[in-house]
Automatic annotation (TrEMBL):
Keyword Transferase (UniProt): no
Signal peptide, first to last residue: 1-19
Domain FAD-binding PCMH-type: 70-245
Any GO molecular function: FAD binding
Keywords: Alkaloid metabolism, Disulfide bond, FAD, Flavoprotein, Glycoprotein, Oxidoreductase, Signal
InterPro entries the UniProt entry points to: BBE, FAD-bd_PCMH, FAD-bd_PCMH-like_sf, FAD-bd_PCMH_sub1, FAD-bd_PCMH_sub2, Oxid_FAD_bind_N, Oxy_OxRdtase_FAD_BS
Protein name: FAD-binding PCMH-type domain-containing protein
Length: 534
């Protein structure tokens, strides 16, 4: 009985390998038909039995949850070296009915750029498409999808120390996913999102055409600035406008535990964080920690860390803080003046004095198991609410929260300007955050369970109908689609949370540019049901 079972497994296994090689062979055949020389094909298409397959797959996995032997693996990996490779890859994938997963920096929190929960898939890995051309005269740059935001910051700094770009804090994040999904960092209150500074793009559509802004039209150009690129085509590059930054910025990190009046200070933070000078961004991190009390006994508390970026000198920052948020008790010695680029390194946890050259190193320092969720808040949490939240966080044990203040520029941009809808009226966005190192299902269930319980606990305090979420904080808990006949209804569930009123326009664009839903994933924009198309 057992022997038969093993035999059956072996047969199934070899069947799968044959099937995979069939896909590879058919794909190669199609590329050949499209005049791609064999030597070039060898450089850009990998089958599972190739020795390079696993290293290429793992090079841009940024979440250990999807780096296990049971994580679904692609049938082929394609690593284009030039634009035309992307075009012909789309044409052949479409012809063969492959489910293409597009990967740039691989930072998707649910790994959907390189794993799939919907059957066989192929990875189109853009890590070799990563040129960056900065023009200080024009205060703009063309940046390709496979470049990382740290490389972009470096290339801007190389040419000008008084220009920057409003994008994320983690410098290994890829342009392709980050910009198509919104993109924000500590310049958010001053300049808004990355997508608020995109002026042109290059996209390969489902027919394999290379389109710029003019050729794709304003609807599609609108959609790929926050609606997620992967529903519409392969983004090859974006043209962005740079923003001015002063020669000196100031950062600080001030921590308060519950014994140091964290509750009152967090409560007050909610009433100033989105209203203060837009040059000032004060992020708030909340974490349960163990401390020793006066009797030297171990106990649990909450640590509130206020981490700030100020576009100006320490003296002006102290004056601003003195009349808007004196309760934090900011002191001159808490403040560190530096260049904008040094502040990029500071926020990404590099030691003082680290060379900017680290931004050109694409290897991650360490890759952990991660889970994230998000929420938006339009009314402050009352003091009693905060007290119950601390209790809950201490009881859960590990999951933390990050409050990212809005206001400033975010209040000025209409919610329909880009697909990203969370603009005026939001005090802050919450990120639920847990990282861990322990392998195995028990740890995974425990830590993911903690984020879900905390999310459930927060229901009375956060946005409702829909309960809003941030696309770049990908969370499959809020709904997925199987691309069945019901995909529109399924897509509406997460679509309204990520895009609110902009969801319908995204669906219209999607239906117009990719009516057969070739570009799809677990949370892509669905097409309109055939019966209800115009
Ligand atoms: C450690 C870490 C820190 C982060 N910090 C921030 C932050 O500070 N601010 C913030 O806004 N977000 C942040 N994020 C979230 C991040 O912005 C998103 O995960 C983003 O989508 C990552 O882009 P990527 O290219 O690296 O990811 P990928 O995993 O490669 O792609 C993400 C999604 O975009 C699609 N996609 C990728 N490239 C293309 C393309 N060229 N054309 C079409 N579709 C494409 C993928 O198919 C996938 O659906 C962080 C994530 C991590 C893991
Ligand atoms: C993925 O796991 C392998 C071991 O199976 C390890 O060598 C590799 O470093 C891991 N990749 C990442 C990105 O951590
Ligand atoms: C960058 O500039 C070079 C040289 O002018 C050009 O060949 C290339 O296409 C440009 N790349 C991008 C992404 O604009
Ligand atoms: C906490 O607040 C109280 C009253 O507002 C004050 O007396 C006390 O000094 C504060 N404690 C700390 C550590 O700031
Ligand atoms: C802070 O403001 C008070 C008045 O509100 C003033 O007396 C004090 O000098 C100010 N301190 C600083 C450092 O600006
Ligand atoms: C960084 O270190 C140098 C000395 O190594 C010191 O002079 C400088 O003040 C430090 N900067 C910050 C922001 O801590
Ligand atoms: C790049 O970063 C990785 C991870 O921190 C490190 O191991 C490696 O030595 C770095 N490479 C270079 C050339 O500095």
């Amino acid at each position: 009985m057992e022997v038969l079972f093993v035999l059956a497994l072996l047969c199934l296994n070899s069947f799968l390998i044959v099937a995979t090689d069939d896909t590879y062979n058919s794909f190669v055949q199609c590329l050949t038909t499209n005049s791609i020389p064999n030597s070039h094909i060898q450089e850009i298409v990998y089958k599972p039995s190739s020795p390079s397959f696993t290293p290429i797959l793992q090079a841009y996995i940024r979440n250990q949850r999807f780096n296990t032997s049971t994580s679904p693996k692609p049938n082929i990996i394609i690593t284009p070296l030039q634009e035309s490779d992307v075009q012909v890859s789309v044409i052949c994938s479409k012809k063969l009915g492959l489910n293409l997963k597009i990967r740039s920096g691989g930072h998707d929190y649910e790994g959907i750029s390189y794993v799939s929960s919907n059957g066989p898939f192929t990875i189109l890995d853009l890590s070799n498409i990563r040129a960056i051309n900065v023009s200080v005269e024009d205060e703009s740059a063309w940046v390709q999808a496979g470049a990382l935001i740290g490389e972009l910051y470096y290339r801007i700094w190389e040419k000008s120390e008084v220009h920057g770009f409003p994008a994320g804090v983690c410098t290994l994040v890829g342009i392709g996913g980050h910009l198509s999904g919104g993109g924000y960092g500590n310049l958010l209150r001053k300049y808004g999102l990355s997508v608020d500074h995109i002026v042109d793009a290059q996209l390969v559509d489902v027919k394999g055409r290379l389109l710029d802004r003019k050729a794709m039209g304003e609807d599609l150009f609108w959609a790929i600035r926050g609606g997620g690129g992967a529903s519409f085509g392969v983004v090859l590059s974006y043209k962005i406008k740079l923003v001015p930054v002063p020669p000196v910025v100031t950062v600080f990190r001030v921590e308060k535990t519950l014994a140091e009046n964290a509750t009152d200070i967090v409560f007050l933070w909610q009433s100033i964080a989105n209203k203060i000078d837009p040059d000032l961004f004060i992020r708030l991190l909340l974490q349960p920690i163990t401390v020793k009390n006066e009797a030297k006994k171990k106990g649990k508390t909450i640590r509130a860390s206020f981490v700030a970026e100020y576009l100006g000198s320490a003296d002006t920052l102290l004056a601003v803080m003195n009349y808007t948020f004196p309760q934090l008790g900011l002191k001159k010695q808490d403040c560190m003046e530096m260049s904008w680029l040094e502040s990029v390194l500071y926020w990404d946890n590099y030691d003082n004095g680290t060379s900017p050259n680290v931004l050109l190193n694409r290897t991650a320092k360490s890759v952990k198991f991660l889970k994230r969720k998000s929420d938006y808040l339009q009314t402050p949490i009352p003091v009693e609410g905060l007290e119950s939240l601390w209790k809950k966080m201490i009881e859960l044990g590990k999951v933390g929260m990050v409050f990212n203040p809005y206001g400033g520029k975010m209040d000025e941009i209409p919610a329909t300007e880009t697909p990203f809808p969370h603009r005026a009226g939001n005090i802050f966005k919450i990120q639920y955050s847990v990282n861990w190192d322990e392998e195995g299902a028990e740890a995974t269930n425990n830590y993911i369970g903690q984020t879900r319980q905390l999310y459930e606990f927060m229901t009375p305090f956060v946005s409702k109908n829909p309960r809003e979420a941030f696309l770049n904080y990908r969370d499959l808990d809020i709904g997925t689609t199987t691309h069945s006949i019901k995909s529109y209804e399924q897509g509406k569930v997460y679509g309204l949370k990520y895009f609110k009123g902009n969801f319908n326009r995204l669906v219209k664009v999607k239906t117009a540019v990719d009516p057969e839903n070739f570009f799809r994933n677990e949370q892509s924009i669905p097409t309109l049901p055939t019966g209800s198309r115009w």
